[in-house]
Every structure is written in C-alpha cells, then in structure tokens.
Amino acid sequence: MFEDKVLTCKECGVEFVFTAGEQEFYAEKGFQNIPGRCPECRRRRKAESRGGSGAREMFDVVCDECGVEAKVPFRPSGDRPVYCSDCFRKRQYQPV
After folding, report:
1. 54 belongs to a structural domain
2. DSSP the chain
3. % pLDDT > 70, the chain
4. Is residue 64 located within the same domain as residue 42?
C-alpha cells in the first residue's frame, strides 16, 4: 500500500526518503501532513526548541510533603510548596 517517496526539505533543500514504514506509522497515528523537513533539520529544530542544550535544567529541592531530596524542572520561587514526583502525582490525582 505504501511506497517510499522522495521529498525535498523545506529548510535546507536536501532530498530525503519518506519510507513506506514511516508512512505507515504516520497513518497509524492519524497524522495528515507529510514531513516538510529532513531528519537532520527535524533533529536540529527540536534541539533548538529546548534552548539548544537538548536537556532541561534541573533544580535541587526538598519535597514539602515527605522531605525527600528531589530535582524539579523549574526554579522554585519559594512562595509555593514544591513536591517530589511521587507526592506531586499523589496530590494531582486526589479527588477534590
């Protein structure tokens, strides 16, 4: 049903292959649009959207609920409680 297609990257102009397997994956996920960028430009764009580092800066905290040391992906302001991932998850799913 699917056949490899040669596409041209809208960012760098390089031709790349949109494989039958990738097309099948897109169809299974319900994606309507074909990729406009080659794999290298997609990787670069994704890395740039994260500040170019590829990883988020993490901050050390002590959980206000259980007291365990944890890391969070934001700088705590000090005016609100901060929870480890386990306590955050427990609080998030508690009925109000």
Report:
1. no
2. ----EEEE-TTT--EEEE-HHHHHHHHHHT--SPP-S-HHHHHHHHHHHTTTSSS---EEEE-TTT--EEEESS---SSS----HHHHHHHHTS--
3. 91
4. no
Tokens coding 55: 């990883």
How many domains in the chain?
Answer: 2
Containing structural domain, residue 64:
59-92
Please, are residues 63 and 76 in contact by the beta-carbon 8 Å criterion?
no
**33 & 11 share domain:** yes
Residue 13 lies in a domain: yes
Predicted TM-score (pTM) of this structure: 0.50
Buried b (16+ CB within 10 A) or exposed e, 14-51: eebebeeebbeebeeeeeeeebebbeebeeeeeeeeee
pLDDT tens per residue across span 11-42: 999 999 999 999 999 999 999 999 999 999 99
13/39 same-domain check: yes
